[in-house]
Design brief:
Two copies of one chain form a homodimer. Chain A has 314 residues and is α/β, with parallel strands linked by helices. Chain A contains twelve helices and ten strands. Chain A is globular. At the A-B interface, α8 and α12 of A face α8 and α12 of B.
């Protein structure tokens, strides 16, 4: 019988903590890198309050330094994209020969950063549709959704197809009770996610509003829709066709969901750096390089850059 | 010797109170319509703290109802544009035969509303470059500038040239020590003012920032400049050429001025309705009707409409 794949969770927060704990509970060999919660989690483990059932892991493999960790088959990057400058020091020590990077982040550009930091290793993206929050040290609250969509990154941005790496990682997640999907084209999947994320994350911060407030105001909703259409046009310029019905589906889905505070808004409210470059800046530049202008997204980007700078300096 | 022109000041706030008090001090026959400050001003008059010299008018002609006022040669509309629905009840009772409406408001569309409310009367616009605030009942603080640029409105939007009405009113203001200018083309003057007002008023509210903060942040400043260029293009579509140097002049002027809270921001902070339709909505629609799209202004307009609605409902 084969050894189970060994996982390193780089960043044990609302997202990494949730998926890592689920893999662990299912019998996975999971190693958690922590920063501020290290001492607490080493002593008390992890607590997950989840709509799918609460559970406690009283004892987990917890580390405060990546150099203490064993080499792993899968290094899960569950840091915010604003911390990707740390990848060159985090990834090489923790990756086994043939180990795979699983990047669970928002926006565009993270795969390229991971590939540069871990040359020769495959980079699989895990696009997460998850509502969870860290409510205390080692304490995660999972309120909704949870699906992970896996897609593999290629150096030239073409579709990788369904690869063995994503299949086997997807299998581990599925066995942990996570709803999974495997996708042939990462770039398409990223742009589809941006159709929602660019307007909803951005406007939630600029207008200090949750998803419900934005969707029930005539003007805000019209702005959301126009921004979504602009992102679809940006995707098209980058060679990814997203059909018209997708925007309507996203609008209906958002209107139907419980009022939600996007993660960018949570970061802003907590005075943490926002993932503006990953979610707004990189798509904007990619579309512009492909010949598409996105003036509404550019406006939002500049507003967010202003707010982000002020939010962190005082 | 001719009788002095009789003035009605409809709206004795930061603006109407300032100019009315200056006309009054210079010996003008000035009648003030007040709302919340009526009882106070009738007893105590007006107090003006001004960079050009403080003064007190212990007794003024104060009215709480327009029907108590004498008929006047000039009816100065110094209300916010958000109150223009009151013009049909305010203007007819106070205008003498041949009386002129002097509209001292921001944005586009006010002249048309005044003309509809007072058919047969000339409508002159007074574009004010004034920093003043009402700091208490009948108490106005004038901190900077003060110039009024007069231009006459025509029904078809063509340039009226320099008319006798604006000359004589301008003369009264000049004699009151106000810096005045007379302009041949009202629509051009309005669009020139909008080049500054649309980005600075709008962004000051959306980004909760004063002029200095917007001008010293790279991203916000770039956004200000792009919005200014879009307004210039909108003006061009409406047949008004504003040259490229004008945008640079506005940027340099704004950077040089003391940090300033635009009047739209003051209204927002005080939970009063904002002049969004006059400053953003009407120019947007005018440009669109003339075939120009202004996507950045449209974005700002929708953001402001959202914020305005929420600001007033709770």
């Amino acid at each position: 019988m084969q050894q189970p794949r060994r996982y390193a969770i780089l960043g044990t927060g609302a997202l990494g903590g949730f998926y890592g704990a689920r893999l662990c509970r299912a019998g996975g060999d999971v190693h958690f890198l922590l920063h501020s919660d290290f001492a607490h989690v080493r002593r008390h483990g992890l607590v997950v309050d989840s709509k799918d059932g609460d559970f406690v892991l009283p004892s987990v493999h917890a580390y405060g330094d990546v150099r203490d960790m064993p080499r792993c088959d899968v290094a899960v990057v569950a840091l915010k994209a604003t911390h990707n400058h740390l990848l060159p020091s985090l990834l090489p020590p923790v990756l086994a020969d043939g180990g795979v990077v699983l990047l669970m982040q928002n926006g565009l550009g993270g795969e390229e950063e991971a590939a540069r930091a871990a040359p020769g290793h495959a980079v699989v993206a895990g696009l997460c549709f998850l509502c969870s929050t860290k409510v205390g040290p080692g304490h995660i609250r999972h309120t909704d959704y949870g699906t992970v969509r896996f897609a593999e990154s290629t150096l030239d941005g073409t579709a990788a197809g369904i690869t063995e790496s994503m299949r086997s990682i997807g299998q581990d997640f599925a066995e942990a009770g996570i709803d999974v999907d495997v996708l042939a084209d990462l770039v398409l999947a990223r742009w589809q996610k941006l159709v929602w994320n660019i307007p909803m994350s951005g406007l939630s911060v600029v207008l200090n509003a949750d998803t419900r407030a934005l969707m029930t105001d005539t003007h805000a909703r019209a702005l959301v829709e126009d921004i979504m259409r602009e992102v679809v046009a940006g995707a098209r310029a980058c060679g990814r066709a997203i059909d018209d019905g997708f925007v309507q589906k996203m609008l209906a889905m958002t209107l139907a969901m419980a009022p939600y505070r996007a993660s960018m808004k949570v970061d802003f409210d907590d005075h943490r750096p926002m993932e503006v470059e990953a979610i707004h800046g990189n798509p904007l530049r990619a579309a512009e390089q492909a010949g598409a202008r996105m003036p509404l997204v550019a406006t939002l980007y500049r507003q967010l850059k202003f707010l982000d700078a002020r939010n962190r300096t005082g």
